[in-house]
Amino acid sequence: MPDKTPLPSGARDPRLDFFRGLSLVMIYLNHVPGTLYELITSRNFGHSDAAEGFVFMSGCAAALAYGPKLAGGLNVPSVRKIWGRSWLLYLVHLMTAAWAIAIISAAVKWFDGAALLDRNALMPLRDDPFAFLIGIATLGHQIGYVNILPMYAVLLLGAPFLIRLGQRSPMGLLAFTIAMWCVTGLFRLDLPNYPFEGGWFFNPLAWQLIFSIGILTGLALRGGTRFVPVKPWLVWPAAAWLLLCAIWVKSEYLMGALGHVVWHLRNWGVPFFLVDFDKTYVSGPRLLHILALAYILSLPGIVPRIAASRAMAPVRKLGRHSLPVFATGTILAIFSQAVKEVHPGGFAQDSVLILGGLAIQYALASVRDWLREVDKRAAAPGSGPGAAIGAPPPAPNPRALSDMPIPESRWAARNAP
Questions:
Q1: Which of 238 and 396 is assigned the larger pLDDT?
Q2: How far apart are CA 262 and CA 199, in angstroms?
Q3: Closest Cα partner for 93 from 158, 146, 28?
Q4: Disulfide check for 93: which of 41, 149, 240, 408 has CB 3.0–4.6 Å away?
Q5: What is the Cα–Cα distance from 104 to 331, expressed in whole angstroms?
Q6: Alpha-carbon span 92 to 55, nearest angstrom
Q7: For helices 50-70 and 76-110, what crossing angle results, to 10°?
Q8: Across all residues in the chain, what is the average pLDDT?
Q9: Do the beta carbons of residue 32 and residue 333 sit within 8 Å?
Q10: For 312, how many CA atoms within 13 A lie in the half-sphere containing its CB?
Q11: Cβ-count burial 335-356 (b if 16+ within 10 Å, e if not)
Q12: What would the pLDDT profile of 70-98 be if each residue is shown by its tens digit?
């Protein structure tokens, strides 16, 4: 079993930052379609992608950051803090949407990029701009590739109640979240769109299942345990499923044969959300893939050491500043899409867009790290005009490699999803 000794106050498990940073990189690569770089992301090796992983880790981070404040029960200061984070996500979403609209509008106005309006749910910008703007402000209309933060904001509205239920009865939360997922799929529940018909692409009523399982994982991690124990009878089936999925998405034969099986199951009345590959409702194959992947990557051994290694420090840095990095990456991805539309280029141009965008995101995270260090030194006893600033942060604590409880800290709360 892993060492359960508590970490020193303010320490972090490096795995959370590493996998959030890795997810941010893959999300950026996937959001600039048509490049060779997107072929290396996780969605090419299974049924889920970086979005599922990021939501799972967001639930885990929410439990680590806010769980201690809710341990004694729901209270106004804690709920207000979590809902304040949800409000911040809404504001950041509006900012990224405004920049996306501005970039697309500039491409259409000055660079003959009118074809961009035919993709990513941008037609109402041309055909019914007033309805489009109403939809943007009310979250009823979400532009393609700029539609993840609204789902996070809604999940955070429910986070205080989910965390508290998980603290009182982990199995109760698990039963509730699975039941909600089933009801959502059976009755095709979703939040409404406007001016389009239908519902949100990232349906929070379904995605709450991944978020809640992340919460249960985070609550167990803070207590020095695992929500799902390490058992050979779980490890081998999970690994086998991941291997099958990796072959499945690459094999035309398996795609046809297993697709035929799914077709028969649907004809026999099996609900679509159990057997299809629907992302909106987090359908069964996608759900099983992300749960198996999270389980295998959480095993003690090589993965925790890679996550905490010096070589992975840049990835962890991105993960420590997930919201500003994600927002910046979203804007850069829309800019890159516009560039590729008005000036089709080859691998060299794609490399400039992809690597340059990642460099900008890393630079932003580095500046925020430096500013945080400045703030810490300014607040430290004895600090003053002569105090040194800008010193590098301390190296990661090697004791953070195992499944140990994470202590409450202001640092963790500031970096919750």
A1: 238
A2: 24
A3: 146
A4: 149
A5: 11
A6: 17
A7: 150
A8: 89
A9: yes
A10: 21
A11: bbbbbbbbeeeeeeebeebbee
A12: 999 999 999 999 999 999 999 999 999 99
What is the model's pLDDT at position 97?
97
Summarised one tens digit per residue, pLDDT across range 30-64 is: 999 999 999 999 999 999 999 999 999 999 999 99
Quote the CA–CA distance of 415 and 98 in Å, as a whole number.
24
In this structure, how many other beta carbons lie within 10 angstroms of the beta carbon of residue 109? 10
What is the spatial distance between Cα 258 and Cα 1, in angstroms, rounded to a whole number?
38
Smallest Cα–Cα separation from 368: which of 315, 322, 313?
322
Q: Exposure pattern of 196-233 as b/e (b: 16+ CB <10 Å)?
A: beebbbbbbbbbbbbbbbbbbbbbbbbbbebbeeeeee
Q: How far is CA 27 from CA 53, 124, 264, 266, 312, in A?
A: 10, 26, 33, 31, 18
The residue type found at 400 is A
310-315: long-range contacts, CB 8 A cutoff, minimum separation 24? 310/395, 312/14, 312/18, 313/396, 314/21, 314/362, 315/17, 315/18, 315/21, 315/22, 315/25
User: 3-state class of 192 per DSSP?
Assistant: strand
Q: What is the pLDDT of residues 184-241, one digit of tens each?
A: 999 999 999 999 999 999 999 999 999 999 999 999 998 889 999 999 999 999 999 9
pTM here is 0.88
How much of the chain, in percent, has pLDDT values that exceed 70? 88
Rounded-to-integer distance, Cα 257 and Cα 276, Å = 14
d(CA 111, CA 89): 32
Token pair of 381 as six digits: 């006893």
